[in-house]
Design goal:
Number of domains: 1
Structural class: alpha+beta
CATH architecture: 2-Layer Sandwich
Strand content: 15-25%
Number of helices: 6
CATH superfamily: HIT-like
CATH class: Alpha Beta
Helix content: 10-25%
Strand order of the largest sheet: 3-4-6-5-10-11-9-8-7
Shape: globular
Largest sheet: 9 strands, antiparallel
């Protein structure tokens, strides 16, 4: 069996087709740099100054309705737009440019200001999942949209601009580089083996001994696991057992199971250190450019930046410049920690 002591091991990331270097023995190295402090500020259930709370005004001058569930609106300060300039000045020499067009939307999970997704009921999380589905369907039929990206930045350390529980949706005229890499990796794997790449990943995680050590929780249709090749300490995937290219293709039973497993995973994350657990969450979906992507396996990915309660993962010069991540912890150990937490 593979030695998981974390002493100078490389593991292949099959989706990104790159090596991840594991040096978990460095986790307890001396550290005199920045540390993270968690403040226990008591937020109100409704903040009169919050532009996401029901009934409040936004920067555009529009007022939010008195919504009681999930609420979606077009971002008042979009990073891309359907009215983006199309007559750009030509780039010099070998350089290239093109318009970045699309839609950005804000998705409020709840009207209550002082909760996070982990504190919502399973039924409320199901409403969020169903809204992800509805938004994917609605945006994917727009001719100018080629990709629908749904994500959340939770915690100030992750760039969260407002504590009100919310995520964002980017519907763009371009396909993100990671999505392109996943497609190329799936195509190459299928050509070599005849298999679906993500199904082989799920099989490897299921067959791993002892005790399927990287699987955190699973149910009838969903699996939550820290992958063998995780770059961040608590990097976690939630994937359907069935291969579908978009979240909108999930059945009602699969949506129910996804909401249930999301609730369990998020509560365990919060219970890990007894604080609201910060993370970057990304829904990986196939492009919506009119082509078929039968090999693409949609899944949720969490990229938490923290490796201990006080220390974050910093991307160093040799990682940015060299192109290979260095992981400070082992996936097997971090999955065991999450399994041990109360749900």
């Amino acid at each position: 069996m593979t030695d998981t002591s974390g002493q100078w091991e490389q593991r292949w990331h099959p989706l990104l087709r790159e090596w991840v270097v594991f040096s978990a023995h460095r986790q307890n190295r001396p550290w005199t740099g920045e540390t993270v402090l968690y403040e226990s500020e008591q937020l109100p259930a409704h903040d009169a100054g919050c532009y996401l709370c029901p009934g409040n005004s936004r920067v555009s001058g529009a007022s939010n309705p008195q919504y009681s569930g999930v609420y979606v609106f077009d971002n008042d300060r979009p990073s891309i737009g359907l009215d983006a300039p199309v007559n750009l000045v030509a780039a010099p020499g070998i350089y290239q440019n093109m318009p970045a067009t699309g839609l950005t939307r804000v998705l409020c999970y709840s009207p209550v200001h002082n909760v996070t997704m982990s504190e919502l009921s399973t039924e409320q999380i199901l409403q969020v999942v169903q809204t992800w589905q509805q938004q994917t369907r609605e945006l994917s039929v727009m001719p100018e949209v080629r990709s629908v990206m749904i994500f959340e930045n939770k915690g100030e350390i992750c760039g969260m601009s407002n504590p009100h529980p919310h995520g964002q949706i980017y519907a763009t005229n371009f396909i993100y580089k990671t999505t392109e890499s996943y497609i190329q990796a799936a195509d190459e794997h299928h050509e070599k083996t005849g298999n679906i790449l993500f199904q082989d990943i799920l099989q490897a995680e299921h067959d791993e001994l002892p005790e399927r050590q990287r699987i955190v929780v699973q149910n009838d249709t969903m699996v939550a696991f820290i992958p063998y090749f995780a770059r961040f300490s608590y990097e976690l995937y939630i994937a359907p057992r069935r291969t579908v290219p978009h979240l909108s293709a999930l059945t009602k039973a699969e949506c129910d199971d996804l909401a249930s497993i999301l609730k369990t995973v998020l509560v365990r994350m919060d219970n890990l250190w007894g604080v609201p657990f910060p993370y970057l969450m990304m829904l990986h979906q196939a492009p919506v450019d009119g082509k078929d992507y039968p090999l693409f396996h949609t899944h949720l990915a969490f990229y938490p930046p923290m490796r201990t309660p006080e220390l974050r993962k910093y991307v160093a010069a040799h990682e940015i410049g060299g192109g290979n991540f260095l992981a400070d912890t082992m996936p097997e150990a971090k999955a065991a920690e999450l399994r041990a937490c109360s749900s």
